[in-house]
Write a structure and sequence with these properties.
With 572 residues, the chain is of the alpha/beta class. The protein has helices at 38-43, 45-51, 86-98, 117-125, 130-133, 186-202, 226-231, 247-258, 278-282, 294-297, 302-319, 335-338, 359-363, 372-387, 417-421, 473-487, 527-531; strands at 18-22, 55-58, 102-107, 137-138, 161-163, 169-171, 206-209, 266-269, 324-326, 392-396, 494-495, 503-507, 513-517, 523-524, 533-536, 552-553, 561-562, 566-570.
Length: 572
């Protein structure tokens, strides 16, 4: 697989960037109220610079009732008062830019909060009003209209329609506090162009587009049944709710706006679509890049990783973009935990929460067996593998500390709407959103001066940033990110088929090699390979066994042996 993009001064920064996702309410608390805030991020900018990231992706920080962790936005051009003000935002952005770090912010265009001024106007204005046309209101079924307009189901469980006082129903494909916007209205499109311009003028470098595939909808009567929608092909662009062809008309307008800036503002789509449709979102005429989520579903197996890598590099070549690689984010069980669990009995391609890797373990409140050390060892190996691939890599806050998912959250402290809307049948995403441990002690492990908004377990003391994270994982990430900048090369790789079915081995154009042993048994390196090792994911003794010490950079003294579930980088 090759890509003609060479590294020059004109190469867009995002093509091979390392982007660090911050979930602001759980990163750092400067105000002492138990909730992370903008000033807390500013206080940790040096940490981010030392880590070696190229950009920060900031999850929603807008005014919100937190019906969905901030993805229910009340005002798209302000900061939630609990997180700070616009006057706090500007110094944070300046501090990042001073250290050469770009900022990407989340935009949530599919829906607003039900507290948004537009929705409040819609409730007051009544049937047939221009205010209601900004959203998707319909009459109910039945003689008295007391039945929903259709049997559609919310992504968080329960019906996708809620009735208002005058008897009409509004659509919400997510929580009832998140009414869907009507993107067929010019007013809606213009409002978001104003929002994108507001943040671009302020100096924001790019945008992550939430539910990018969901804006355009076909609401013509009669509405299709939920069963019919579920059975529709995923490649035709005609699904009533998702990935309709006309959504690209919206993004073409956005791209025109982005390209009016120098340098152009970047964007990355969260688009859960058939892979054949991903290049539409990653096209330079559209958003320019799209998330590759395939590795979030993959088990730690060479036979799964390699076809995913090859497929997504091919998609990137088709779109002219670069691929994105991600192992954890704010919506999934952390990969250190997933890799410590048995492979789940789940349906390939399904993203129903109970079929996600780690869901059953969470539902057991962590009582089912999970091999923590093995999970972390595999996670570190997988991270070094994706950091060596052409394209950009997204890191989720805390993975550099070797954090596992937190299962031991009392039911009365949970916040994710999925947990409540499914009657506790699905555990939700709180376990990956627990505030970070910065110190090994204190009421919130250095997160702030008071107890954190989600309870932190005692074992967080062993993962504190100030002491290097779990098993020295922070040192490994720092070494990898800084060395990656030194080794960065053309967006190409060549597979080397020389070490067996359980090993992935590829070479980049400058001779940089990445070797991952997915198997349990050690494999042999040649004497020449062993001499060129500059980074490894897990410590090794001369006989190839792993110990509990710290990994890092330099020659690990492997004596020609690559341990199981370990990745090494070789300098060219």
């Amino acid at each position: 697989m090759t890509n003609a993009h060479a590294i020059t001064a004109e190469t867009p920064w995002w093509r091979q960037a390392v982007v660090y996702q911050i979930y602001p309410r759980s990163f750092a608390d400067a105000s002492g109220d138990g909730i992370g805030d903008i000033a807390g991020i500013t206080s940790r900018v040096d940490y981010l610079a030392e880590l070696g990231v190229d950009a920060v992706w900031l999850s929603p920080f807008y005014p919100s009732e937190l019906a969905d962790g901030g993805y229910d936005v009340i005002d798209y051009r302000d900061v939630d008062p609990r997180l700070g003000t616009l006057e706090d935002f500007d110094p944070m952005l300046a501090a990042l830019h001073e250290r050469g770090i770009k900022l990407v912010v989340d935009i949530v265009p599919n829906h607003t909060s039900n507290k948004h001024v537009w929705f409040q106007e819609a409730l007051k204005a009544g049937r047939g009003s221009a205010a209601r046309e900004r959203y998707i209101f319909r009459e109910g079924k039945g003689e008295d209209g007391s039945e929903p307009p259709s049997d559609w189901v919310s992504a968080f469980g329960g019906p996708a329609w809620t009735r208002v006082e005058d008897g009409q129903w509004y659509l919400h494909l997510f929580a009832s506090e998140q009414p869907d916007l009507n993107w067929a209205k010019r007013e809606v499109r213009d409002e978001f162009l104003k929002t994108l311009k507001f943040w671009s003028d302020r100096g924001v470098d790019g945008f992550r587009i939430d539910v990018a595939h969901g804006l355009a909808k076909d609401m013509n009567e009669p509405l299709a049944s939920w069963a019919t929608i579920q059975e529709m092909p995923t490649t035709g662009g005609t699904n009533p709710l998702y990935d309709r062809d006309e959504v690209q008309e919206i993004y073409a307008e956005w791209r025109t706006l982005f390209n009016s800036y120098d340098p152009p503002r970047t964007a990355v789509a969260e688009a859960w679509v058939d892979s054949s449709r991903v290049p539409r979102y990653a096209s330079p005429a559209s958003l320019g890049q799209a998330f590759n989520f395939d590795l979030l579903e993959a088990d730690f197996e060479a036979g799964q990783f390699k076809p995913i890598i090859m497929h997504n590099l091919a998609l990137a070549k088709e779109s002219g973009s670069s691929s994105t690689w991600v192992l954890s984010n704010h919506d999934v069980v952390r990969h250190a935990t997933r890799y410590g669990l048995p492979n789940p009995p789940r349906t390939p391609g399904s993203w129903r929460p109970n079929e996600r890797h780690g869901a059953r373990w969470l539902l057991s409140r962590g009582e089912l067996p999970m091999d923590r050390e093995r999970g972390l060892r595999r996670a570190r190996a997988a991270t070094l593998l994706i950091l060596g691939l052409p394209g950009s890599t997204y890191i989720y806050q805390g993975e550099e500390l070797g954090l596992h998912e937190v299962a031991e959250i009392p039911d009365d402290r949970r916040q994710d709407p999925t947990f409540f809307r499914t009657g506790h049948a699905e555990i939700g995403r709180d376990g990956c959103r627990v505030p970070l441990p910065w110190e090994p002690d204190g009421v919130s492990f250095g997160f702030g001066s008071t107890e954190a908004h989600l309870p932190q377990p005692g074992w967080f003391a062993d993962c504190a940033a100030s002491t290097g994270g779990n098993e020295g994982t922070l040192e490994l990430y720092r070494n990898a990110l800084h060395l990656r900048r030194e080794l960065e090369t053309l967006e190409e790789l060549t597979w080397v088929e020389d070490m067996g079915a359980h090993v992935l081995h590829f070479r980049r154009p400058n001779g940089w090699e990445v070797i991952t042993n997915f198997g349990e048994e050690p494999v042999e390196l040649t004497e020449e390979q062993a001499k060129r090792v500059v980074l490894w994911s897990w410590p090794a003794t001369p006989d190839g066994s792993c110990d509990a010490g710290r990994g890092g950079a330099g020659n690990p003294g492997m004596s020609g042996t690559l341990p199981g579930e370990t990745t090494v980088w070789l300098r060219g």
